[in-house]
């Protein structure tokens, strides 16, 4: 079989199994457990092209006496299973963006990165539950350089 014919056949097969892009929106609440447990809230908007996708996420972690508050806006690459397996769709994320940390009189704003993993659990129709774990890497002047966050959220696909 010639290379041209093999290329054409590959393109036809790829187009035949390709899915249209889909999007989803998540509202979440969780915790940033170290150095003290603080509430985190936020939202994420994602666009998926089957296995690879992109996500924009805003999160706000409350400040308390021991732990800093953290606001972040991150843009992530998402790699996920192309479809749910037994109602579960697993994913991993990697990205970066801006953060603002605050504790008492200290303020730090800069560029940070994050990586994490999670699962979207099909509930009814386009509605899913989402469970996520993230590790952040903040700048040298931050009081907490590698905060972690765990959250649960409600996700709707459209």
Order of strands in the sheet with the most strands?
A: 1-2-3-4-5-6-7-8
The proportion of strand residues reads over 45%
* Mean pLDDT across every amino acid position: 92
The secondary-structure class comes to mainly beta
The number of helices is 1
Give the total of domains: 1
Counting DSSP E segments of at least 2 residues, the number of strands comes to: 8
Low-confidence stretches: none
The biggest sheet amounts to: 8 strands, antiparallel, barrel
Q: Level of helix content?
A: under 10%
Head-to-tail CA distance between termini: 41 Å
Write up this protein:
The protein is mainly beta. It has a single domain (20-157), classed as Porin, CATH 2.40.160. It is built from one helix and eight strands, in the order αββββββββ. It has one helix at 3-17, and strands spanning 22-32, 38-49, 52-61, 69-80, 88-103, 106-124, 127-137, 148-157. Strand 4 and strand 5 form a beta hairpin. The protein is elongated. The chain starts with a helix and ends with a strand.
């Amino acid at each position: 079989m010639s290379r041209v014919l093999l290329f054409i056949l590959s393109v036809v097969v790829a187009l035949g199994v390709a899915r249209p892009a889909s999007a989803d929106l998540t509202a979440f609440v969780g915790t940033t457990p170290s150095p003290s447990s603080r509430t985190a809230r936020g939202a994420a908007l994602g666009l998926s092209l089957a296995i690879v996708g992109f996500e924009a996420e805003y999160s706000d972690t409350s400040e308390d006496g021991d732990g800093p508050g953290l606001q972040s806006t991150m843009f992530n690459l998402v790699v996920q299973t192309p479809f749910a397996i037994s109602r579960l769709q697993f994913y991993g994320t990697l990205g970066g963006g801006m953060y603002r940390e605050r504790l008492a009189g200290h303020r730090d704003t800069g560029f940070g990165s994050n990586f994490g993993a999670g699962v979207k659990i099909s509930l009814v129709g386009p509605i899913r539950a989402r469970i996520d774990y993230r590790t952040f890497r903040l700048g040298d002047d931050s009081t907490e350089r590698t905060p972690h966050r765990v959250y649960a959220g409600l996700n709707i696909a459209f």
